[in-house]
């Protein structure tokens, strides 16, 4: 039986970070300290606004276009020098894992996707063994090798973001999977086991190519974690009991292999899915949550676990500089979807010492924040100001950023 590692002061992960560039060592230490709950500091990673890497169908076949996009993004991230690992991401998600079983990739709205290719319980008995020799997997492996050979100094190459095995199963099988989980639970459990085996096989190959340790990784958003990150968006369709029955065994297997699981899912303003957040806190294998709902999704009175959640929380945060004049909706590309609160620079000190962040910091619950800026200069100034806030005593926190 898995035991949750102790997340409290003084229990920081011992990280073998020799595989990371020297310039990323401080960032890695800060991220791992957040997962261990051993530091008051809240890491703040900054990227240029509207410069996120976008998953495009063309990138599957145009390595030069993908590399050019990722190179420009990583160079800017490195120049800002915030709490983020500058990374070049092989954007072949979400198709690599399902394609190990024979899925065919299609262009769906400019993004790589595929139609379900398994129909009915009988099709599961004929499921082919996963193969790392699939065309998509081989292209991903080649892209990693190309990126490693040409990545600029001080940056890290990241593998394609991995689908949670349940998400992969739903894409491969279609929505009938939800009904068959009730009618044929043992068969579906074996199906999920097979996909989890394939996940482990694929993740090990990625790590071998990257020179990445088994129990450490850098997510595609530049956060160093003591385990693996999975995109588990489809889990929001399940009840807590179904999550425990079908998803917990997956997470426990991945934790045995890779150290722990950082779970991503997407809430929305109308459907917040706090039942998922609360259920994740029950699983010893889950080390944190990484949602698209921003820190305001977590710091919401509707969140029953708002002040008690003992998981590291990785989230976005919209921050407005003193001379900001752009419309609020331009602060973050997801703002209209997830209703980001906008925080003024000169009020960050009060927020840091407010109930939500102060409680998490004092009780050893890690928080890692991401934000976007308009320029490298703005990013440097904001990060310097952020660090001054944490070096000040609570009664002497600065109230204005200094140029």
Structure description:
The chain has one domain: TIM Barrel, CATH 3.20.20. The chain has 15 helices and 15 strands. Strand 13, helix 12 and strand 14 form a beta-alpha-beta unit. Helix 5 packs parallel to helix 8. The longest helix is centred in the middle third of the chain and has 26 residues. The radius of gyration is 21 Å and the shape is globular. The N and C termini lie far apart (53 Å).
Layout of SSEs?
Layout: H1 25-36, E1 44-48, H2 63-80, E2 87-89, H3 96-99, E3 106-108, E4 111-113, H4 121-125, H5 135-150, E5 156-158, E6 162-163, H6 165-173, H7 176-183, H8 185-210, E7 217-218, E8 224-225, E9 228-231, H9 240-258, E10 261-265, H10 274-280, E11 286-291, H11 294-298, E12 312-316, E13 318-320, H12 335-338, E14 342-344, H13 348-352, H14 355-362, E15 367-373, H15 376-391
Parallel strand pairs: 1-15, 2-5, 6-9, 9-10, 10-11, 11-12, 12-15, 13-14
Antiparallel strand pairs: 3-4, 7-8
